[in-house]
Amino acid sequence: MTDGPWLVVGLGNPGPQYAGNRHNVGQMVLDELARRTGASFGGKGGGVLSRKPQAAVAEARLGTLPGGAPGPRVVLAKPTTYMNVSGGPVAALVRYYDVPLEQVVMVHDELDIPFADVRLKRGGGEGGHNGLRDTSKALGTKDYVRVRVGVGRPPGRMDPADFVLRDFAKPELKDLPWLVDAAADAVEAVVLEGLERAQLRFHTKS
C-alpha cells in the first residue's frame, strides 16, 4: 500500500429523476460510506479540478485498523456527469489526488450478477457497462478494482438499457438497504484487508 489515498467512485447518472434507478446503485453505496465516515459530499473536489465541478467529493478515513487506529485515507466521489462519460472525472480525480491505480475502486451496477449479490474483481472486461468502458479509456487501463453490485437481468425481452434506468421493483426495495450495506462492507474490506481476502468473504454464497 502506498501513501496515496484510495479513490472510491460510485457510478450513476445525475439528477433526482435517476436517483432510484438500478444504474445508480453505486452512488447509493457511496452515500452509505459517507454516512459511516461522517463525511459530506460537496462540489469542492470537482471545482478545483476544472471550472465546472464534475464530481461530488468527500474525504474521510475509512474503517478502523487493528489496534484502533483510523483506517486509510479515502476520497469518495460521485461523478456529476452522465454515466457514459464517467471517465473524465475519474481520471481527473486520480491525477489531482495522486491516487495509485491499484487503489482505485469503482462501485457499479452489474446485470450479470443476481440481485442482492456482490462480487469483486480487478481488471477484465466491462460487460457492456458504458461507465466502466469510459473509465478504462480515460485511465488507459482496465486494471482497477470493481465492486459489482448485482441488479439481475431484465425480464422477458426488455432492453437492458431500459431496465437499468428503472427504479428497483417493490419486492426488491425491502432488500435494497441490505444490498447497499453489503456493498459498502465490501468496499471497506478491499481497503482494509486487500482484494483477495475481501473476495473470500463476499464470494461465498450466503
UniProtKB/TrEMBL annotation:
Its EC number is 3.1.1.29. GO terms for molecular function: peptidyl-tRNA hydrolase activity; tRNA binding. GO terms for biological process: protein quality control for misfolded or incompletely synthesized proteins; rescue of stalled ribosome. The record marks 109 as: Stabilizes the basic form of H active site to accept a proton. Pfam families: Pept_tRNA_hydro. The record marks 13 as: Discriminates between blocked and unblocked aminoacyl-tRNA. Keywords: Cytoplasm, Hydrolase, RNA-binding, tRNA-binding. The active site is at residue 23. It catalyses: an N-acyl-L-alpha-aminoacyl-tRNA + H2O = an N-acyl-L-amino acid + a tRNA + H(+). GO terms for cellular component: cytoplasm. Transmembrane segments: none annotated. PANTHER family: PEPTIDYL-TRNA HYDROLASE. Belongs to the PTH family. This is Peptidyl-tRNA hydrolase. The gene is pth.
